Structures are given as structure tokens and as C-alpha cells.
Protein: DUF4352 domain-containing protein
Organism: Streptomyces hintoniae
Amino acid sequence: MYEPNVVGDWQEYDEHDGLRVRVHRLEAAEPPRGRDDAAVGLAYFSLRVTVENRGPRHLGIHLEDGQIDVRIGTEGEGAFLDWRNSQFIEGFDVYPLRRATAVLYAAGPEAALGQVDVQIHLRVEEEWARRRLWAGGIGLGEDPAGPHQGAGREELACQVSNFLRDQAGGGTA
């Protein structure tokens, strides 16, 4: 059974000894080189994709545009990806006990950012690894100093947990 990861979780690739990947630091953020004209009226956010090599030899990693798909909202609409501001991993040798990180900037309607799905299709040594999916969300309207700090994250974690339990056959009808 294919199960999505929660943003922040590491996912290991069995076919590449010691290689693991995670999507993390999903947060509201403005792009460093300014907003793209096509993103007028949209809320920007960023995320990081880190590839770590815990194996015995170096691995050539490719994580470029077209290998990362970001979907938002309950309908799974494609987010606007700001390729000009994003940083990818293009043909980088990740040596043992080292990491490489890609930083993406994307945008979408603020109301849809409570549910963000990120699919990664990593290329390792000129071979395609299996696709992996991470689920998360952004609480752009939340006040970090307020009494409900983290409530959105807990709610999303509960939704993901319930989804996984239902997919495993442990849910009730």
C-alpha cells in the first residue's frame, strides 16, 4: 500500500542504500527576488526538499523543475510554482553523511493553503526512483502568538492519521 508522508517525515529509498528524502519547512514566505507578475492576488509559501546520503558511496542527484509537483486545496489544484526564485538540485553528487537541499517558492489562493500535497520524483544516478508524496498545510491566517498555536498542524495531522488508518482498513464505515 502506498501511504503519503506527513511534511517533515524522512522517506528512505530501498533501491538506493542509505538515501532518504524529506519535504519540510512548509511556511508562508515571500520570494527573495520579488513576486512573479503571474502570482498577483496569490499567497506565497516556501518548502524545502532535503536529500540525505547515509550510504557508503556518493550518489548523483537530480531534483529539477518537473520533478516536484505541488497541489493545494481539497480539489488538488496545481499551485503556481515560481521557478525563477526556486533553487533546485541539478546533477549534484551527494557524498556519504552529506545533504543537498532544494528550496521552492509557490503560490496559491490563501484559502487553499491549509492542504498542501507535494510529490517528489527523484532521479538518482540517471535512474528514476519511485514517486513519494508528502501531505501538509499552512495556517496563514493563524496568529503565532495566539492561544491556538499549532492547532492547524494538529488538525492536519489528525486528518492524515485518519486517512492512513482508513486506507489500511482500520476505519469504520
User: Anything to note?
Assistant: The chain is about 10% helix and 40% strand. Confidence is low (pLDDT under 50) at residues 140-150. The two ends are 20 Å apart (CA to CA). The first strand starts at residue 5 and ends at 6.
